[in-house]
Amino acid sequence: MARRRKKLHRTIGRRPPLFELTAGVLCLDFVNTLDNRPTGEPKELLARYGDLVRFAEDTGILTPAQADRSFAWSEADPEEAQRVLRAAVELREAMYAVFSAVIAKRAVPASALALLNGYIQLAAKHLSLTPANGGFAWQYDSYGDSPGGFETMLWPIVRSAAELLASDNLPFVRTCSSETCQWFFLDTSKNHRRRWCSMKLCGNRAKVRNFYARQREG
Q: Which of 56, 111, 134, 187 fits as disulfide partner to 194, beta carbons 3.0 to 4.6 Å?
């Protein structure tokens, strides 16, 4: 089993993306890692710590080399890896509660906002500016480059959520119109009338259903 894991983390950087990233914003793509929420039988896309690493790599949070090291560290300390996975899922659900309330124009649950704020404060302690490409870029210390840094991959996600919640784009956070999907996305369309998480996914299925419905009626 251990050999299989080692082979996995050595080849991860050469594999195709695992996640459908349709939201247009990192934090919303993260919330969408619980699929089929409205069906009563949701599908957990972060079932293992390795899934969290894959999400971080797919979204550019971790480089392939950093992802490889994260896999190696998780093998050396599986209990810590599981703790971080549980924390990630708890954070995701808090973010879901916050954005759901915003979309529905309800009061934001205090416990969910408190948890998110706790992560925002933690991440901010490790954030600094570094010279990059003739200018500057944000950088987190010990970011995916040292053992014990498992949790650092959550910090860019938290920052993304904070920036979106405090931005003028917040009113354009939407849910997919498919009753079995309802993924979040940021509607950046010209008239802000986007309905689907992706035309390739739910949008196309809706078009097919409508086509056959018209055929039956005709």
A: 187
pLDDT in tens, 90-107: 999 999 999 999 999 999
What region does 136 belong to: left with phi over 0, alpha with psi -120 to 50, or beta? beta
pLDDT of 111-136, one tens digit each?
999 999 999 999 888 888 989 899 99
Q: CA quadruple 162, 165, 169, 174: dihedral positive or negative?
A: positive
Cβ–Cβ < 8 Å for 74, 88: no
- Full set of structural domains in the chain with CATH: 2-217 (1.10.3300.10)
The CA distance from 116 to 121, in Å, is: 9
Reduced to 3 states (helix: H, G, I; strand: E, B; else coil), residue 55 is: helix
What are 122's two structure tokens?
């933690």
Supply 20's token pair.
């459908």
DSSP-derived secondary structure letter, 15: S
pTM of the model: 0.84
Phi and psi at 168, nearest 5°, equal -75, -10
